[in-house]
């Protein structure tokens, strides 16, 4: 019997530890616990741990989305539903865990494949995808492949006093597989809103669930921000 190489031993050990769960798949999933919606759905229950909010009425050329809504990236789905109103189709995947929504329910945008979400984005030409970013400065970081719409969003936000810059490479949303760009046109705009900016949308900077669910807690900045995005969408339509 020939010698077993160290490479073979290492491979066997790797397979063993992965199989026993001692090595996490997070490294292969952009740091996320799950690589796909199917994996998430095998562990967490709809209606209890997560929910989907969607509306299909309005201008079918558009989609407004918040795939990390609810408690995953707080306030993104609240902002999204306000932007969409009854004028545009809207999709949100919302975390409902009492804690740990981001660490357990976040699926990175290039892997997000919930079937209803894919159907809606695949039917749209234009897409505003809302996300939450870290940051102690009130700021919006813009990404995505629709450079023309991105420029208009930037202008409309800045005209109303908001600080805007290009998103850094790690969250620039320019990959074709990014949910933002999975439209008919292959492009969209990813709106990354820092935590400080999201806190500014609520009285006393409170972005807890109870505060987000109470419209009376929204500040003037919330309304102005929503109006800026809506104005950008309307201006883009008129080009």
Write the layout of secondary structure elements.
Layout: H1 6-19, H2 37-41, E1 50-55, E2 62-70, H3 76-84, E3 90-95, H4 101-105, H5 115-123, E4 126-133, E5 140-143, H6 147-159, E6 164-166, E7 189-194, H7 195-199, H8 209-212, H9 220-237
Parallel strand pairs: 2-3, 2-4, 4-7, 5-6
Antiparallel strand pairs: 1-3, 5-7
Provide a compact summary of the structure.
The protein has helices spanning 6-19, 37-41, 76-84, 101-105, 115-123, 147-159, 195-199, 209-212, 220-237; strands spanning 50-55, 62-70, 90-95, 126-133, 140-143, 164-166, 189-194. It has 239 residues and is of the alpha/beta class.
Which spans of ≥5 residues are poorly predicted at pLDDT below 50? 8-24
Beginning-to-end CA distance, first to last residue: 74 Å
Structural class: alpha/beta
DSSP strand tally: 7
Question: Strands of the biggest beta sheet: in what spatial order?
Answer: 1-3-2-4-7-5-6
Largest sheet: 7 strands, mixed
Helix content, binned percent: 25-40%
From the alpha-carbon coordinates, what is the Rg to the nearest angstrom? 20 Å
* Overall 3D form: globular
Overall mean pLDDT stands at 91
What does this protein look like?
The protein is of the alpha/beta class. It has a seven-stranded mixed sheet with strand order 1-3-2-4-7-5-6, sandwiched between helices. It is globular. The protein has nine helices and seven strands. Mean pLDDT is 91; it is low at 8-24. Helix 3 (76-84) links the parallel strand 2 (62-70) and strand 3. It has helices at 6-19, 37-41, 76-84, 101-105, 115-123, 147-159, 195-199, 209-212, 220-237; strands at 50-55, 62-70, 90-95, 126-133, 140-143, 164-166, 189-194.
């Amino acid at each position: 019997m020939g010698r077993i190489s160290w490479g073979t031993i290492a491979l066997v050990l790797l397979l063993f530890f992965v199989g026993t769960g001692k090595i996490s798949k997070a490294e292969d999933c952009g740091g996320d616990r799950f690589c796909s919606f199917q994996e998430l759905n095998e562990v967490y229950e709809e209606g209890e741990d997560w929910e989907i909010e969607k509306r299909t009425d309005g201008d079918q050329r558009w989609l407004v989305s918040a795939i990390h809504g609810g408690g995953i990236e707080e306030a993104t789905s609240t902002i999204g539903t306000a932007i969409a109103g009854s004028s545009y189709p809207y999709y949100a995947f919302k975390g409902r865990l009492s804690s740990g929504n981001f660490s357990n329910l976040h699926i990175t945008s290039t892997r997000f494949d919930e079937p209803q979400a894919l159907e809606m984005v695949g039917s749209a030409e234009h897409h505003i995808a809302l996300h939450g970013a870290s940051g102690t400065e009130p700021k919006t970081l813009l990404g995505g492949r629709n450079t023309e719409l991105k420029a208009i969003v930037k202008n409309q936000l800045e005209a109303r006093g908001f600080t805007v810059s290009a998103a850094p490479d790690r969250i620039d949303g320019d990959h074709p597989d990014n949910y933002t760009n999975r439209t008919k046109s292959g492009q969209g705009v990813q709106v990354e809103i820092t935590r400080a900016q999201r806190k500014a949308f609520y009285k006393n900077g409170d972005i807890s669930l109870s505060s987000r669910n109470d419209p009376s807690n929204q500040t003037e900045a919330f309304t102005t921000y929503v109006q800026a995005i809506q104005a950008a969408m309307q201006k883009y339509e008129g080009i």
